[in-house]
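#random but structural
TW: two for the price of one
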Amino acid sequence: MDLPIVTIESLLDNIENVQLFQLLQSTDSNTLQIILLKLEGYSNKEIARMLAADVHAINMRLYRLRKKLKKYF
């Protein structure tokens, strides 16, 4: 059984694809925190509340990351 991912460092440590690792490593820590919370099952609205951010800002960060990922995968 895999241990749950609880930190950004453990998130990155669990990535085996070199390109994905490099792309995420170059991503800002706020976006990585959003990814971590999404993996834990939180909604964008809940994440916005936890990070004291606007839901639109959360949506935009995820949109930009998906757009960046689509270039490589």
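TW: number two ↓
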Amino acid sequence: MEGDGQERQLNIHLDPENLAVVYSNFANISFSDYEFTLTFARIDHEVEEGDIPGVVVARVNLSNQFMKELLDAMQDAWSKYSTVKGIQDLPEAPPRD
């Protein structure tokens, strides 16, 4: 059978109106038997009294299976980031005589 063993590549289209990124410093995770919902918001932590203002910048629904895959991918990325950052933060070795 042709195509067996061939690597498939994603061909993802991004609409121009979705090119802008959003900043989030808060996330809420809710779930049901069928899906997870990730809600990302930008919160103003500088407010000292009363309610803390914030605005939702994105909300994403994921299947339970995709949530697990996302967690695995995020843990892998964090591990790689931590390794690189840890190497960058090592003190310089003193010069040898």
